[in-house]
Design a protein that fits this description.
This protein has 94 residues and is an alpha+beta fold. The protein has one domain: Enolase-like, N-terminal domain (Enolase-like, domain 1, 2-Layer Sandwich), CATH 3.30.390.10. 41% of the residues lie in helices and 30% in strands. The chain has three helices and three strands, in the order βββααα. A three-stranded antiparallel sheet has the order 1-2-3. A hairpin with a 1-residue loop joins strand 1 and strand 2.
Length: 94
């Protein structure tokens, strides 16, 4: 099984909630949620797509740790990065 798409949708209520949909080539999808990530988390997820598509959705820890180590020190976005990664991996299929 491979990841084929990562999609986002934001809703407003008590702050912004960002929903992350992970789709696979076997038709299995998952849904994760990012809270308090803001528009930075949306941008980060969109930028991470190319690194996620084609990956094994069950390699949760390896993917999370690889991306965290690669990007956590890029500018001042560490908090938004972790929020974005949490939305991607929060049992949303990966």
């Amino acid at each position: 099984m491979k990841i084929t798409a990562i999609k986002t949708a934001a809703t407003l209520g008590h702050g912004m909630h960002l929903w992350v949909k992970v789709e696979t080539d076997e038709g299995i999808t998952g849904l994760g949620e990012c809270v308090h990530g803001g528009t930075q988390a949306i941008a980060i997820i969109h930028n991470l797509r190319e690194r996620l598509v084609g990956r094994d959705p069950f390699a949760i820890d390896a993917i999370f740790e690889e991306l965290r180590r690669r990007f956590v020190f890029d500018g001042g976005t560490a908090g938004a990065l972790i929020t974005a990664l949490t939305g991607i991996e929060s049992r949303s299929g990966i």
